[in-house]
C-alpha cells in the first residue's frame, strides 16, 4: 500500500540504497532490471550518468525503499592520491568544486561520494565479473575512498555471462569474496546480473541487506522485504496459472475423426481417412502453437517486459500458424529460443506440421501402407475416452517441458537487456528440467490420463495442472539457487 500522495514517510521508514561502481560497469542497466522500468540512459561509454538519480524501488504501507543511481567513479587512482595528501581528506574532497566539463572523472566521483555520504544506508557496489578480480585495478582505490564514507558495502557481481551450474557460480563468487576480504566495509558478495537475474536472486539480495541496516531501519526494511517477496511470489503464481491453463487446454483439446473401417484398418481405401488424420493433426498443431504464443506473451507481461519477438509471434499466430511448415524461419527461431535447447522436440514438430516429432518416417510409412492406428501414433495422436483424437502421452510430456523452459527463459530475462528477444539459453537448463520431469513423470502422466482418457472436469484438471507446474518450477529453482526460501 503506497503512502498518501504528497506525504513523505519519516526517516526511519525510508531505506536508501546507493548503486555505485567504476564508470561504465552497468549501474543504470541493473537499476532498470530492479525497477522493472526503463530509467536513465544506457550507452557503452564512460560517464553517461552525470547526476545522482533517485528512484522508488518499492512503496508499501507508508514505508519506502529507495534506490540511487550515481555517476560512478572516474579516475579513482588519481583521486585517491589527492585524498592521501590531505590531513582531512573527506572534508577536503567535499569542499572541492570540479568542473563536470573539464574534469569529468573527478566531478562524477564527487557526486557519487556525496550521495553515499549523505543518503545511503547501504552501498551496492557493482563489479564487472567478466574480468578476474585481480585485474580490476580500480577496486582497491575505490574501496579506500568508500571507506571514508563509513557505510556498509554489499558487492554485486554483474555481467556474469550465461547462467551456469550452481557449483560453478558459487566458486566464482567465493573467488571475489576472497579477493575483497581485506576490506572491512565489504560485508558480502552476491551475484546480481542485470541481464540474467531471477526473482529468487532478488530475494537473496534482500536477505543479504538485512544485517547491514541500522536498528532504526530494521523494522521498516523487514516489512519492505516481506512486500517485495510477496510481489515476486504473486508473479510466480500468476505465471504458473498461465502455464497450467496451457497444459489443461492441451489435454482437453481434441478433434472429431470417424473410426476406421475394417478395410481401412488393413490399408485398403484409406486415402480419405488419412487426410482426416492429417487435417486433425494440423489443426491441433495450430491451436497448440497459438496457445504457446499467448501464454508466453502473458508471462512476459507479468514480468514487466515487452519485446518485438513476442509481439511478432502474437500477430503472426492467427495468420500463419494455420500452415505451420510455411512459417518463416525467423519466427520459429524466436519461438525456439523460448524452449531453450528443446528445438529438436516440440518446436521442430510444430515447425514441420507434424512430420518430424516421434514419427520421422511418417511420409514413408504412409507409402508403405501403415494402418490407421499406426498412422495416428506416428502423428503423436491417440483416441481419448470421448473417441476424439488428442495429443499422445509422449507429446504432452514435451509440451510440459516447453512450459517449464518458457518460464525459465522469461524469469531470467533482466530488463537491462532491453526488449524481450530471442537468445540462446543455458544448456544445463534442459538437463535440469529433464531430471525434474522424470521425478514428476507420474504426475504428468496422471494429468494427461485424467484429461484424455477419463474426461475429468476442466476445473479439477486446472487445479492439478497448477499444482504440477508449481511443484516442478519450485524444484527447478531450488536446485538452481540452493538455500533459497521459495515457499516462505
Overview of this protein structure:
There is one protein chain. It is elongated and about 100 Å long. The protein is of the alpha/beta class and 488 residues long. The longest helix has 38 residues, at 215-252. A six-stranded mixed β-sheet has the order 2-3-1-4-5-6, sandwiched between helices. Strands 7-8 form a two-stranded antiparallel ribbon. Helix 5 (139-147) links the parallel strand 4 (122-128) and strand 5 (153-158). Helix 8 (215-252) crosses helix 19, helix 16 (393-411) packs across helix 18 and helix 18 (441-452) packs antiparallel against helix 19 (458-480). The chain has helices spanning 27-35, 76-84, 89-95, 104-119, 139-147, 166-180, 199-209, 215-252, 262-265, 271-302, 308-320, 329-338, 346-351, 362-368, 372-378, 393-411, 427-439, 441-452, 458-480; strands spanning 14-21, 53-60, 63-69, 122-128, 153-158, 186-191, 381-383, 389-391. The two termini are 20 Å apart. The chain contains 19 helices and eight strands.
Largest sheet: 6 strands, mixed
What's the number of domains? Answer: 2
User: How many beta strands in the DSSP annotation?
Assistant: 8
Number of helices: 19
Low-confidence stretches: 1-5, 42-48, 308-347, 349-370
Structural class label: alpha/beta
CA-based shape = elongated
Q: Looking across the biggest beta sheet, what order are the strands in?
A: 2-3-1-4-5-6
Look at the structure and give the mean pLDDT: 76
Instruction: Evaluate the radius of gyration.
Output: 28 Å
What share of the residues does DSSP label as strand, in percent? 5-15%
Q: Order of helices and strands, N to C?
A: EHEEHHHEHEHEHHHHHHHHHEEHHHH
Distance between the termini: 20 Å
What's the helical proportion of residues?
Answer: 40-55%
Amino acid at each position: 500500500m503506497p503512502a498518501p500522495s504528497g506525504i513523505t514517510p519519516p526517516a526511519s521508514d525510508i531505506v536508501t540504497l546507493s548503486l555505485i561502481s567504476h564508470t561504465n560497469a552497468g549501474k543504470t542497466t541493473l537499476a532498470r532490471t530492479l525497477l522493472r522500468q526503463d530509467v536513465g540512459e544506457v550507452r557503452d561509454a564512460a560517464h553517461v550518468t552525470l547526476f545522482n538519480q533517485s528512484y522508488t524501488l518499492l512503496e508499501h504501507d507508508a514505508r519506502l525503499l529507495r534506490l540511487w543511481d550515481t555517476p560512478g567513479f572516474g579516475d579513482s587512482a588519481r583521486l585517491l592520491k589527492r585524498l592521501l595528501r590531505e590531513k582531512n581528506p573527506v572534508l577536503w574532497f567535499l569542499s572541492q568544486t570540479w568542473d563536470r566539463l573539464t574534469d569529468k572523472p573527478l566531478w562524477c566521483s564527487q557526486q557519487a561520494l556525496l550521495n553515499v555520504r549523505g543518503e545511503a544506508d547501504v552501498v551496492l557496489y557493482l563489479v564487472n565479473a567478466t574480468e578476474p578480480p585481480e585485474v580490476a585495478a580500480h577496486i582497491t582505490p575505490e574501496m579506500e575512498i568508500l571507506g571514508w564514507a563509513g557505510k556498509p558495502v554489499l558487492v554485486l557481481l554483474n555481467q556474469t555471462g550465461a547462467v551456469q551450474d550452481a557449483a560453478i557460480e558459487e566458486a566464482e563468487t567465493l573467488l571475489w569474496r576472497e579477493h575483497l576480504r581485506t576490506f572491512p566495509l565489504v560485508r558480502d558478495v552476491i551475484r546480481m546480473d542485470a541481464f540474467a537475474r531471477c526473482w529468487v536472486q532478488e530475494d537473496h539480495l534482500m536477505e543479504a541487506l538485512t544485517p547491514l541496516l541500522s536498528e532504526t531501519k530494521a523494522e521498516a526494511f523487514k516489512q519492505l522485504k516481506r512486500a517485495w517477496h510477496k510481489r515476486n511470489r504473486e508473479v510466480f503464481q500468476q505465471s504458473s496459472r498461465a502455464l497450467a491453463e496451457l497444459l489443461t487446454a492441451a489435454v482437453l483439446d481434441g478433434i472429431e475423426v470417424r473410426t476406421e473401417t475394417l478395410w481401412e484398418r488393413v490399408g485398403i481405401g484409406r486415402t480419405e481417412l488419412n487426410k482426416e488424420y492429417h487435417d486433425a493433426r494440423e489443426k491441433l498443431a495450430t491451436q497448440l502453437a497459438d496457445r504457446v504464443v499467448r501464454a508466453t506473451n502473458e508471462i512476459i507481461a507479468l514480468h514487466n517486459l515487452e519485446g518485438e519477438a513476442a509481439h511478432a509471434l502474437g500477430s503472426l499466430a492467427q495468420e500463419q500458424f494455420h500452415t505451420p511448415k510455411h512459417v518463416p524461419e525467423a519466427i520459429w527461431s524466436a519461438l525456439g529460443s523460448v524452449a531453450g535447447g528443446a528445438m529438436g522436440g516440440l518446436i521442430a514438430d510444430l515447425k514441420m506440421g507434424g512430420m518430424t516429432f516421434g514419427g520421422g518416417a511418417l511420409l514413408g510409412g504412409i507409402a508403405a501402407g501403415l494402418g490407421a492406428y499406426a498412422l495416428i501414433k506416428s502423428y503423436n495422436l491417440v483416441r481419448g475416452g470421448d473417441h476424439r483424437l488428442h495429443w499422445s502421452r509422449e507429446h504432452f510430456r514435451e509440451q510440459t517441458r516447453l512450459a517449464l523452459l518458457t518460464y525459465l527463459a522469461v524469469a531470467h530475462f533482466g530488463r537491462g537487456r532491453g526488449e524481450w528477444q530471442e537468445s540462446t539459453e543455458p544448456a544445463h537448463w534442459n538437463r535440469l528440467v529433464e531430471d525434474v520431469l522424470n521425478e514428476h513423470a507420474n504426475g504428468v502422466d496422471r494429468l494427461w490420463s485424467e484429461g484424455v482418457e477419463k474426461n475429468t472436469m476442466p476445473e479439477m484438471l486446472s487445479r492439478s495442472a497448477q499444482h504440477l507446474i508449481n511443484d516442478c518450477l519450485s524444484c527447478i529453482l531450488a536446485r538452481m539457487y540452493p538455500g533459497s526460501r521459495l515457499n516462505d
